[in-house]
Write a structure and sequence with these properties.
By secondary structure, this protein is α+β, with helices and mostly antiparallel strands. The protein has helices at 2-34, 36-45, 95-98, 114-118, 120-123, 134-140, 142-147, 161-178, 221-224, 234-243, 279-284, 288-298, 300-310, 339-346, 355-366, 401-418, 483-486, 488-501; strands at residues 60-63, 69-77, 84-87, 101-102, 110-111, 154-157, 182-188, 195-201, 252-255, 258-261, 264-267, 275-278, 370-371, 377-381, 387-389, 396-397, 432-441, 448-461, 468-475. The relative contact order is 0.12.
Length: 508
């Protein structure tokens, strides 16, 4: 009995010793191998104290199509100095999504824009630990290694670097052709909300941001700014009408070219009457009167329910980027709103939305009717070697799956037969898409400019099992009045690139 008890205690002690040894060896590996350069810098800094605290920051990674991690932001020594600074291997690649690290009227470097700011606490180490005793760190982190309580680590993102580079190249070519004030694009998985690429033009070099004279170039208009999006909102209006049962795909209306509501004249883009028109032609010909008819059939309460409560066009998406704006939907966010406000909202005027909120709502057409959370963070990778997959708010069913299928069918016909006269149709792959051309409001004199427009475009494919949704927009492009002229070609080029790069199988 005594011998058995002794043997049992020896075994327990042996297990404890093994665990402690594993913890110590693991921590030595982290301190000496993974962070060896950093501690060498700390040691040198004790002989020549730096003017500002040493930067101690974890990495950010892109994720390529094979699942491999590619460095997006890391630490690098400055010339012959023993100190390290933030370095972005891609230069300007994904600049508006990544953001950068900088001082801001203090002696501490922090993330100032983009993911660097949003995940600042995860990416940085507390400054009070920079000169902690080696053995305190060695033995004091055993609990962290065992329990995983320390949430600081490197960020793995959903951004695919080759797709990101292609989107930026596309916007650069667009800028040369059409000279917009601003342009941007988002490529997203509509089922998961993973953002594969996000770009803005003009952009900047993350390693030389101090050379920029205008700090406004650092902000991300895709997330922070709002715009009247125009006709890409029409599919959401049609979807609401179908989902609520107020119209069917076979419904028709009498198109008179223009009509008056609340003493305001509303017209089709060309003012031309078309007589009795089916719902398909409302999208194929982008008829303002058609969606205004759908809005009237729904009535204010139903339209508010879909636009505000279901599509959530007036609230933030929850994307993991700082300073997200919210839509300006006051025109219809009140029971006493006039009928004209609902009419104009039906074709994307009078409501100002962030591009990311617009993409989230449109993605519901591509994923079977669910509202997802757009995001760029994929996982946190810890020094111990383990990682934690980031989780996002659960999908919410906002329209019926059969409604999403019906609208996808209609938008596929738009591409096959109407958009650019069917010249951008892809024979073996179904693509659903819609253009948008919106007048730009005149903040000084009221009303709208007659010669300034915002062009927008969205599409997804394959139409009935979408892997990608692509959104493009341009502010004040020069030389063409309609988005179908300026944005259809770059959308077509991006679609073909994604099909080839991801080897998307034909679906028809």
């Amino acid at each position: 009995m005594i011998v058995a008890r002794f043997v049992s205690r020896v075994r327990i002690l042996t297990v404890v010793c093994i665990v402690c040894a594993v913890v110590i060896v693991g921590r030595l590996y982290v301190l000496q191998i993974l962070h060896g350069d950093m501690y060498a810098a700390r040691a040198n800094a004790q002989f020549t104290p730096p003017q500002n605290p040493l930067l101690d920051r974890n990495n950010i990674f892109f994720t390529d199509s094979s699942g491999a991690s590619i460095a997006a932001a890391t630490m690098r020594r400055v010339g012959t100095s023993t100190l390290e600074k933030r370095f972005y291997p891609g230069g300007s690649l994904a600049a508006h999504a990544l953001g950068f690290v900088a001082y801001n009227n203090d002696d501490v470097q922090k993330g100032r824009y983009g993911l660097e700011r949003y995940y600042d606490q995860t990416l940085t180490q507390p400054s009070e630990n920079l000169y902690a005793n080696f053995f305190v760190e060695l033995f004091g982190t055993a609990q962290t290694l065992l329990t995983g309580e320390d949430e600081r680590g490197s960020l793995v993102t959903t951004i695919e670097p080759s797709v990101q580079a292609e989107l930026e190249r596309t916007l650069s070519l667009y800028e040369k052709d059409w000279n917009p004030t601003l342009s941007g694009g988002i490529i997203m998985d509509p089922k998961t909300g993973e953002i594969i690429a996000m770009a803005v033009s003009p952009t900047f070099d993350l390693n030389a941001f101090g050379q920029e004279k205008n700090a406004s170039v650092f902000s991300n208009p895709l997330v922070q700014d709002v715009y009247e999006m125009g006709s890409i909102i029409k599919p959401l209006t049609v979807a609401a009408g179908l989902d609520s049962g107020r119209i069917t795909e076979a419904s028709t209306y009498n198109d008179t070219g223009c009509f008056e509501v609340d003493q305001k004249k509303i017209c089709n883009f060309d003012g031309r009457a078309r007589g009795v028109v089916p719902m398909q032609e409302v999208l194929s010909q982008s008829l303002n009167l058609g969606v205004a008819h759908v809005a009237a059939k729904m009535g204010p309460a139903i339209m508010r329910e879909y636009f505000l409560d279901r599509y959530k066009l007036g609230v933030e998406t929850g994307i993991d980027l700082p300073s997200e704006g919210h839509g300006l939907v006051g025109n219809i966010d009140k029971p006493a709103a006039r009928a004209v406000e609902y009419s104009t909202a039906s074709f994307g005027q009078g409501l100002a939305l962030t591009p990311i909120a617009t993409v989230r709502a449109l993605a519901a057409l591509a994923n079977g009717g669910k509202l997802i959370t757009p995001h760029l963070g994929k996982a946190i990778r810890f020094d111990s070697g383990r990682s934690r997959t980031l989780s996002w708010e659960s999908d919410t069913q906002v329209i019926k799956p059969e409604t999403a299928t019906a609208v996808s069918r209609m938008l596929t016909l738009v591409v096959d037969e109407a958009l650019a006269n069917g010249t951008i149709k892809i024979e073996r792959h179904s693509v659903a898409a819609k253009t948008g051309t919106a007048q730009i409001a005149n903040p000084g004199g009221g009303g709208y400019y007659t010669d300034r427009f915002l062009h927008s475009f969205f599409g997804y494919f394959p139409s009935f099992d979408a892997q990608f949704i692509v959104f493009l927009f341009a502010l004040e492009p020069k030389g063409a009045p309609f988005a179908s002229q300026t944005l259809a070609p770059p959308f077509h080029a991006l679609t073909k690139f994604l099909i080839n790069y991801y080897n998307v199988p034909p679906d028809r």
